[in-house]
Amino acid sequence: MIVDSGKEVTLRNFIGGDILIHFFTNDIEINESTIGEDLIESDAVKPSKLFPILWTVLNNTAYIEDVITFKKPIEKLYGYFITYESILFWVDKFSDGPYEIAGKDDTIKLKLTISFD
Fold first, then answer.
1. Which of 43, 66, 111, 112 has its CA 20 to 30 A from that of 55?
2. Cis, bond preceding 98 (omega within 30 deg of 0)
3. What is the rounded CA–CA span in Å between residue 91 and residue 32?
4. What is the 3-state secondary structure (H, E, C) of 43-112?
5. pLDDT on residue 34
6. For residue range 96-106, what is the model confidence (pLDDT) as tens digits?
7. Residue 79 class from Cβ within 10 Å (0-12 exposed, 13-18 middle, 19+ buried)?
8. What b/e readout covers 84-114, taking b as 16+ CB neighbours within 10 angstroms?
9. Which pLDDT score, from 0 to 100, does residue 83 have?
10. Which residues contact residue 6 at a Cβ distance below 8 angstroms, ignoring those fewer than 6 apart?
11. Mind listing the pLDDT tens digit for each residue in 10-35?
């Protein structure tokens, strides 16, 4: 069992690493066997670093809010994935997606949460 102080240390170490957010444009079923090659990465936005200073850690949970700006339109954006030290760590589809990015400089706001609960 990881005790509460260990959970906070684990989260702080994780968010201190090289964490990048990417976006994918294909409609796939996500499961534990999903690999990076299953995802078609959008070329409308480059991967964005989620800097440690942007995260808040409180009560065994880490939060981040970020605004992503796109460089060109995308017909359908299905979700995002997180890489940690270049390893696929997390994949999620937008619950209310797919999103259409209509033009250059369109933005979306994301709130990500990592928790031990």
1. 43
2. yes
3. 9
4. CCCCCEECCHHHCEEECCEEEEEEEEECCCCEEEECEEEEEECCEEEEEEECCCCCEEECCCCCEEEEEE
5. 94
6. 989 998 877 88
7. buried
8. eeeebeebebeeeebbebeeeebebebebeb
9. 92
10. none
11. 888 888 888 899 999 999 999 999 99
